[in-house]
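Hello,

Our lab assistant flagged a job as stuck in the queue for most of the afternoon. It eventually completed. Since we weren't sure the result was trustworthy after the delay, we are filing this so someone can double-check. Below is the sequence as submitted and the structure that was eventually returned. Let us know if re-running is recommended.
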Amino acid sequence: MFDFYGKLKFLEKPVEALEAKPVEKGKILFYGHSLFTRWGSPKWGFRRMDEDIRMKDGSLAVVNHGFGTSTSEELLYYYPRLVKPWNPRAMVIYCHGNDFSAGYSANEVMTLQARLLEWARRDFPGIRFYLETGKPSPKRKEFSTGTQRTTLEYERLLRDYCANHADTTLVDHTQLPD
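-- returned structure --
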């Protein structure tokens, strides 16, 4: 059984590090799991996202609030601390692989993410959302049949959700090469 509260103790240190950063309101907030933490880490060989995403005046356009191993339920839990103070104009959300590893179903993940988006709509009228599908990777082919089925079901739910919400755009990584 997944130990939600035990995992929160594990996540507290990275969350506190994100909270310690200066609050930058009105930016694009990247919110999700370790995919975002790797974007900008010399360890992973990626360029920092703020080198690529800037405002017209050259200032930074993004705030990276990715934290490793997070699930959709944890994104909800930390929303008051990691999203609300930043008053984002847009959110890019990537979170589901860890959910499936923890035993969540595709419907549960989509329900949790829909709740997160409703909270943000309430708090930040006019906000835009960009929801990401899973990224292609050779490891994806190694998933069990059940995990592959859950992933495909989640991606179908995500596509349907985005098609029915004008403020939400699907970022579909599934058509990219590995």
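-- support follow-up --
The delay was a queue issue, not a problem with the job. The result is valid. The longest strand covers residues 28-32. The helical segments are 4-19, 34-38, 49-52, 72-82, 97-101, 106-123, 145-163.
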